[in-house]
Amino acid sequence: MTAPVLVIDTAGPWCACALASGGAVQLRSQAIGRGHAEVLAPWVSALLEEAGCTPRDLQRIGVNVGPGGFAGVRVGVAFARGLSLACGAQAVGIGALDAWALHADPERAGDVFSVHDARRGELIWRLFRKGRPSGDVERGDLDAARAALEAVPGGRLAGSGAALLGGPAFDPEPPIAALLQLTRAAPDDAPAPAPVYARAPDAKLAGGIDLA
I need a labelling partner for 28 at 20 to 30 A (CA). Which of 20, 34, 46, 115 fits? Predict the structure, then answer.
């Protein structure tokens, strides 16, 4: 695929977007914590202008669907779906665990235990073997995650929960290259992106109705 591809990652502590076009990758990325909605649209507009593209030139829009920060994931997915409707590009959802696994093992040569710190003592993880998911996404406490990891001797740790299991500290940079690669590789009939939340929001509407 050579047509311009846009990727968005607002699932972590950063706001990031990148445009791959004509063999070059333009990037905007900053650790902002919150306020993704205010900066994302201007950044995407600037990337398109710098690359000499219009939104209708985009072929795909990839977005990190989480798990990650609740508000950030919602902003990124809503923006990708809205832009897709406006310009006709296909919007593709990329799981955070998938992106971190490829980021940690770009050669797809070994086993990667990709794990998200869901806070409150919970972890969400998935095992990848040579770049392919092995088994379902699992959730549990620290002891359960340690037990699952012990079944993967020599496996590499990746993601926001890696340090809790003795792995490296969380990489402060978004996995942009992995998101671009996974977006390009997604099937043509991939469903529209939908948020993957670590848990339901604490806030509720009047009458106790869940927001999710």
Answer: 115
